[in-house]
């Protein structure tokens, strides 16, 4: 079982330490709740209407960077021989689950969504393009993986291919278990098998210009899609959240949130 780390007298720390055999992990948990106005409405009426787009989110990006800082602080206090892996867990509340869950991965990888025609004139397919925009995965090579989930969905483990220890991480029980159960997202394998595109090699300055990035991706994959690849606007999702019990309107968050 994970061990809750005591809050430090000064500075910051991760939430948990865990181990299995010789494997060591530090885990920082970040909860995502609906905006304050929605939480107030939930408490007052037990129902609220929530909407938002499903693309990368600045607030989630900030949570990931904060979590990385907390993991680094705890790692520096560990014995030199421990060398724990660093995992960020993003947990969506029951009120905000589906929407936040769909925002976590695109934010971590800086993804964009493209569409292309399917096998009939009425069918349109969608494919994710990784590293389309600036992203925490590339900027935080000390983070080995992102664990995402909510109360209604199984957890998914998203690998950071830029981790300094990615090869070591792929030998862990955690990696093997998520791969065995089909709940692993490995960006290298997704691109290799054609389930995702990558814009990693695009000029860095293009990432400030969506049109230039879209044109680069279209040209990069012209051999596969011809002229049929089109950048999509992220879907705006809406839904009604309800209170299952009164205690569920308070955040779960850990330690130094």
Description:
The chain is an alpha/beta fold and 257 residues long. The chain has a domain at 3-110 and 135-188. The protein is built from nine helices and 13 strands. It has helices at residues 36-45, 58-76, 97-109, 136-139, 166-169, 173-180, 187-192, 210-220, 222-225; strands at residues 3-4, 16-20, 23-32, 47-53, 85-92, 112-117, 124-130, 145-150, 153-159, 184-185, 196-198, 230-231, 236-242. It has a seven-stranded mixed β-sheet with strand order 1-2-3-5-8-9-10. Strands 11-7-6-12 form a four-stranded mixed β-sheet. A hairpin with a 6-residue loop joins β6 and β7. α2 (58-76) crosses α3. The protein is elongated and about 60 Å long. Mean pLDDT is 81; it is low at 34-52 and 236-256.
Record the SSE blueprint.
Layout: E1 3-4, E2 16-20, E3 23-32, H1 36-45, E4 47-53, H2 58-76, E5 85-92, H3 97-109, E6 112-117, E7 124-130, H4 136-139, E8 145-150, E9 153-159, H5 166-169, H6 173-180, E10 184-185, H7 187-192, E11 196-198, H8 210-220, H9 222-225, E12 230-231, E13 236-242
Parallel strand pairs: 3-5, 5-8, 7-11, 9-10
Antiparallel strand pairs: 1-2, 2-3, 4-13, 6-7, 6-12, 8-9
Helix pairs in contact: 2-3
């Amino acid at each position: 079982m994970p061990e809750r780390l005591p809050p430090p007298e000064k500075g910051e720390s991760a939430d948990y330490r865990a181990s299995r055999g010789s494997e060591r992990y530090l885990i920082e948990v970040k909860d995502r709740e609906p905006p304050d106005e929605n939480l107030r409405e939930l408490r007052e009426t037990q129902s609220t209407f929530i909407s938002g787009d499903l693309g990368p989110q600045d607030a989630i990006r900030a949570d990931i960077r904060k979590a990385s800082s907390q993991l680094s602080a705890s790692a520096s206090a560990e014995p030199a021989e421990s060398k724990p892996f660093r995992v960020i867990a993003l947990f969506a509340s029951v009120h905000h689950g589906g929407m936040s869950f769909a925002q976590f991965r695109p934010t971590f990888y800086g993804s964009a969504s493209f569409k292309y025609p399917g096998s009939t004139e009425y069918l349109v397919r969608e494919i994710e393009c990784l590293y389309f925009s600036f992203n925490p995965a590339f900027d935080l090579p000390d983070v080995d993986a992102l664990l995402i989930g909510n109360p209604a969905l199984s957890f998914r483990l998203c690998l950071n291919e830029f981790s300094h220890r990615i090869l070591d991480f792929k030998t862990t029980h955690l990696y093997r278990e998520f791969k065995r159960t089909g709940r692993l997202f490995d960006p290298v394998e997704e691109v290799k098998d054609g389930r995702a595109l990558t814009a990693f090699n695009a000029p860095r300055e293009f990432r400030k210009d969506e049109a230039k990035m879209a044109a680069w991706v279209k040209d990069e994959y012209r051999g596969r899609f011809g002229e049929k690849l089109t950048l999509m606007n992220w879907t705006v999702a809406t839904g009604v959240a309800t209170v299952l019990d009164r205690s569920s309107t308070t955040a779960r968050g850990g330690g130094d949130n």
